[in-house]
Amino acid sequence: MATDISLACLAGLTGTVYGRLQDSGFFFDPVQREVEQQVMPWLKEETQKIVARQATARSVNSASVCCPHFVPWLYIIVKV
Questions:
Q1: Sign of the dihedral defined by the CA atoms of residues 14, 19, 20, 22, in that order
Q2: CB neighbour list of residue 61: distance below 8 Å, 6 or more residues apart
Q3: Phi, psi of 21 (to 5 degrees)
Q4: 8: pLDDT confidence band, cut at 50, 70 and 90?
Q5: pLDDT, tens digit, for every residue of 14-51?
Q6: How many domains does the chain have?
Q7: Could you read off the pLDDT of 42-56 as tens digits, one per residue?
Q8: What's the CA angle centered on 56, arms 52 and 57, to 5 degrees?
Q9: Is this model's pTM higher than 0.90 or not?
């Protein structure tokens, strides 16, 4: 009888302990952790580079429409 009561109490406690350990990050998915720590920062950097290049291209394009006689100089400035 006492054993049954103890087992019933521990069964609920075990689930709670495992749940709290998982919530605190003790157990983790290695693939998810690699994606969060390595892939996502790399992807963010590459995206920022692409967006910066697109912004530069738009600026050069706008300047070439606005002031066509400066286009060769803009190309040299952007190229270097």
A1: positive
A2: none
A3: -65, -40
A4: confident
A5: 778 888 888 888 888 889 999 999 999 999 999 999 99
A6: 1
A7: 999 999 999 999 988
A8: 115
A9: no
Residue for token pair 């950097």: 45
Range of the domain at 28: 2-79
* Alpha helices (H) along 1-80: 2-23, 30-34, 40-66, 71-79
For residues 77 and 38, give the distance between their C-alpha atoms in angstroms, rounded to a whole number: 34
Q: Helix 40-66 to helix 71-79 angle, to the nearest 10 degrees?
A: 160
Report the greatest alpha carbon distance in the chain: 96
